[in-house]
């Protein structure tokens, strides 16, 4: 038995898709600036665009963080990370053919609230995204504005990685962060298709399994 | 523009409208070439008022002699102008002529070694020691039967100012490249090891730039001690990041246009240009009578103005963000590997997912 539920607010959806759009602009301008894969996204000021959009991207992430804290903490709170990891472990075992993981999502129409709103691994995904966005922001802005304390810190650990100096390490870390971001994004995109939640991020509504505790 | 009037008096120099500190600031603001060209006559006038001859001892350690050649090609003013125009009063004697400079001076053997004594007997406070080339372990370089290290230690006792000219003298340079069998090192490091408590003004680059030396000598003679950075380099010459503040190819970088082989238009970053991590004013100053410099002729900056050159910047044609220390793979290779693994994982899962769906339907 299923029931249609209003799942995502308009604010959350706009925030999400704005992050997607700005994220793509950042990825392509970044790859153009890094001379990667022959990408030619803009003819004009690629760096200026990259920096400006990155600031918007950062603001959107903090808006989303605010929303998560204010409205969705029950589902995305840090306290759920261990549960999320356990679920991920079970998913991984299932992926290798050991056991089966039941979709825990469900809605209680009597109480008009979710019993479980998300696939638990989304908790990790969200926080990894946020940490990576923060990491990209810090490394990128440290390079652009030459934030000396950060460059000095990077310089102090640069020899461990065989990097030339702090700036070089920051640049490599920023580049590597992009790949990690893309990796999480690929998994995220695949997951939303598999778990059938993509339409709800457009309409805000989804048919949920009725689950009474 | 403020006209500079330099008046010499008493124990030193007083610069009307342009203080000692602002002398160096003006150089920083205008660039040394423009400063020299614009204020050459004022500097010459000021230096001409110095009543005593300045003594220079130019020592050559482990080096190729390129810095001497570079200095000989100084322009605006060139070496002839320096030696003929900047004189002690009306004496016709140059304000500063190296007493000892083994590549240039005609003397040789014991006669040449005797010139060092002339330098030592110069007026106290007016003896400048310039070192070109690095200092090695004992036994690798002997001049006049004496180890070069002893020459340096001996001269250091008398020197009122010590200038290391070129990458080798500053930080070891090419002679200090791996495996560095002679343990070549810079003069300041040698001083520290030997307990010689003197500050060395480092003027790196390979070779050293004549402008840097001419201006540093002029500033020392005028009593202006240039402000040094953490690596002993005058901030006026080495205080700016080449990539961020001076490179004429920066707009290409900002637009994501990269040269992939020498000769192509575009930022040299992908060719391995070390500009983003190098502090020098090469793009402003240029070389060979201010005609061009490494990046302008299509090559990447190889970081010769920085400590650790050349090993720290090798391979020269590898881009800055490379991380050779992580299992021989750089950030791009590792990132691409992770993405490929993710894509493969997703593909396998998708196939299994579809297959299991069909099986359920069949059931």
Question: Any overview of this molecule?
Answer:
The complex is a heterodimer of chains A (213) and B (363). With 213 residues, chain A is mainly α. Helices cover 66% and strands 8% of the residues of chain A. Chain A has a single domain, classed as Up-down Bundle (Fumarate Reductase Cytochrome B subunit), CATH 1.20.950.20. The longest helix of chain A is centred in the C-terminal third of the chain and has 29 residues, at 166-194. Chain A is elongated and about 60 Å long. The two termini of chain A are 15 Å apart. The model of chain A has no long low-confidence stretch (mean pLDDT 88). By secondary structure, chain B is an alpha/beta fold. Chain B has 2 domains: 52-238, NADH:ubiquinone oxidoreductase-like, 20kDa subunit (Rossmann fold, 3-Layer(aba) Sandwich), CATH 3.40.50; 242-355, Cytochrome-c3 hydrogenase, C-terminal domain (Cytochrome-c3 Hydrogenase, Chain A, domain 2), CATH 4.10.480. In chain B, 39% of the residues lie in helices and 12% in strands. Chain B contains 14 helices and 9 strands. In chain B, the strands form 3 sheets. Chain B has a 5-stranded parallel beta sheet, sandwiched between helices. A two-stranded antiparallel sheet of chain B has the order 1-2. In chain B, helix 1 packs antiparallel against helix 2 and helix 2 (32-48) runs parallel beside helix 9. The chains are: A mainly alpha (213), B alpha/beta (363). Chain A binds chain B through residues 29, 32-36, 39-48, 95, 146, 159-165, 167-169, 171-176, 178-180, 182-183, 186-187, 190, 194, and chain B through 241, 244, 253-256, 258, 260, 269-270, 274, 276-277, 303, 312-313, 320-326, 330-332, 334-336, 338-339, 342-343, 346, 349-350, 352-353.
């Amino acid at each position: 038995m299923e029931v249609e539920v209003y799942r995502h607010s308009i604010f959350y959806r706009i925030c999400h898709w704005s992050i997607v759009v700005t994220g793509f602009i950042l990825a392509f301008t970044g790859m153009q600036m890094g001379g990667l894969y022959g990408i030619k996204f803009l003819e004009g000021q690629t760096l200026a665009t990259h920096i400006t959009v990155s600031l918007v991207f950062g603001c959107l992430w903090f808006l989303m963080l605010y929303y998560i804290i204010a409205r969705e903490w029950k589902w995305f709170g840090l306290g759920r990370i261990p549960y999320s990891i356990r679920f991920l472990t079970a998913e991984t075992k299932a992926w290798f053919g050991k056991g089966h993981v039941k979709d825990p999502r469900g809605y209680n129409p009597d109480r008009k609230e979710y019993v479980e709103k998300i696939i638990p691994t989304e908790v990790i995904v969200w926080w990894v995204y946020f940490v990576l966005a923060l990491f990209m922001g810090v490394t990128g802005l440290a390079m652009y504005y030459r934030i000396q304390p950060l460059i000095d810190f990077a310089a102090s650990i640069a020899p461990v990685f065989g990097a030339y100096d702090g700036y070089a390490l920051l640049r490599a870390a920023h580049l590597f962060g992009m790949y990690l971001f893309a990796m999480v994004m690929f998994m995220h995109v695949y997951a939303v298709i598999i778990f059938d939640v993509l339409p709800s991020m457009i309409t805000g509504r989804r048919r949920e399994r009725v689950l009474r505790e | 523009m403020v006209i500079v009037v330099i008046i010499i008096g008493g124990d030193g120099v007083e610069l009307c409208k342009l203080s000692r500190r602002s002398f160096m600031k003006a150089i920083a603001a205008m660039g040394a070439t423009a400063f020299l060209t614009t204020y050459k006559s004022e500097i010459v006038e000021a230096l001409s008022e110095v009543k005593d001859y300045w003594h220079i001892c130019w020592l050559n350690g482990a080096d190729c002699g390129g810095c001497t050649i570079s200095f000989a090609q100084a322009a605006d003013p060139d070496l002839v102008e320096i030696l003929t125009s900047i004189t002690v009063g009306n004496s016709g004697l140059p304000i500063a002529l190296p007493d000892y400079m083994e590549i240039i001076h005609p003397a040789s053997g014991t006669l040449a070694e005797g010139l060092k004594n002339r330098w030592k007997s110069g007026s106290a406070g007016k003896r400048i020691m310039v070192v070109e080339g690095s200092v090695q372990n004992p036994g690798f370089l002997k001049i006049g039967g004496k180890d070069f290290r002893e020459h340096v230690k001996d001269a250091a006792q008398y020197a009122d100012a010590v200038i290391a000219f070129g990458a080798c003298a500053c930080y070891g340079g090419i002679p200090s490249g791996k495996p560095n069998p002679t343990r070549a090192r810079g003069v300041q490091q040698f001083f520290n090891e030997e307990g010689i408590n003197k500050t060395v003004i480092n003027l790196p680059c390979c070779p050293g730039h004549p402008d840097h030396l001419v201006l540093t000598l002029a500033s020392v003679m005028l009593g202006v001690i240039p402000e040094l950075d953490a690596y002993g380099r005058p901030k006026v010459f080495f205080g700016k990041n080449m990539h961020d503040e001076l490179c004429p190819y920066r707009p290409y970088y900002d637009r994501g246009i990269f040269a992939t082989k020498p000769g192509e238009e575009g930022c040299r970053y992908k060719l391995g240009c070390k500009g983003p991590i190098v502090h020098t004013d090469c793009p402003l100053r240029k070389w060979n009578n201010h005609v061009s410099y490494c990046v302008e002729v299509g090559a990447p900056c190889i970081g010769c103005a920085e400590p650790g050159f050349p090993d720290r910047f090798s391979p020269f044609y590898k881009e800055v963000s490379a991380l050779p220390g992580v299992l021989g793979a750089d950030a791009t290779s590792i990132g691409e590997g992770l993405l490929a693994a993710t894509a493969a994982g997703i593909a396998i899962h998708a196939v299994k997912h579809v297959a299991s769906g069909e099986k359920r339907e069949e059931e």
